[in-house]
Amino acid sequence: IRVGVLHSNFPETLLTTEQTEKIQSFILEAIVEEQEGPYSPRFYGINRRQGVLILTCENTETAEWLKGKQDSLKPWEEASLRIVPEEEIPRARIATVYLPDSILDTTEKIMKLLKGQNKELSVGEWNVLRRSDEGKSVLLTLAVDCATANKLEKEGPWIGYKFGKVQLRLKKKHQGNIEQPTREEGTTEKSETVTTEKRTAEEMEVEEATKVSEQSVHTLPERSTP
């Protein structure tokens, strides 16, 4: 049973690493204070994913105990947090971006450039799902946070990269067709459209990549229920 602790203003406001550490300390202190109480909270693991602290509870009792802490969960002054089932946390959105003259750049360097040139976006929370090298250019498929997706849908899809702008094309929710982002005028690389039905490969990839890229704080192996 997985439960998420997130900022009440999520996805616009994401929890920092420091804040998630304070939340962990608060939960452990609550366990110590209630050691003589009726509950015995136990977990399989804990990790941070795109500004949310995810706790894997061993049983329903632990999940309910944790949810009951929402009103008292104040790990820092003026903390405003929510505790919800994982399925209620908005999923990351899939996006593609075409990056000219980047074939010699590592994916890590590309992401650092995007982060350094777009500080108003939560680039550090993005996950790279796939890289395709096309001529002198690179096409990245990304899983981006909800706040970024909302901002780009309202203000436009163009973001800074090197000495120009590139288009971050978001896959529409429940969209069957995935189109490559528009290329700069004058380029000769071919564009193509991949058509899929129902659950696309990108959707399966974002789910898997999200799990793999979760920043693990402490994990224990899953145990089978007797």
UniProtKB/TrEMBL annotation:
Residues 174-226 are annotated as: Disordered. Residues 181-202 have a biased composition (Basic and acidic residues). Residues 1-169 form the DUF4780 domain. It comes from the Eukaryota. Residues 212-226 have a biased composition (Polar residues). InterPro entries: DUF4780 (IPR031961). It holds the Pfam family DUF4780. This is DUF4780 domain-containing protein. The lineage of its organism: Eukaryota, Metazoa, Ecdysozoa, Arthropoda, Hexapoda.
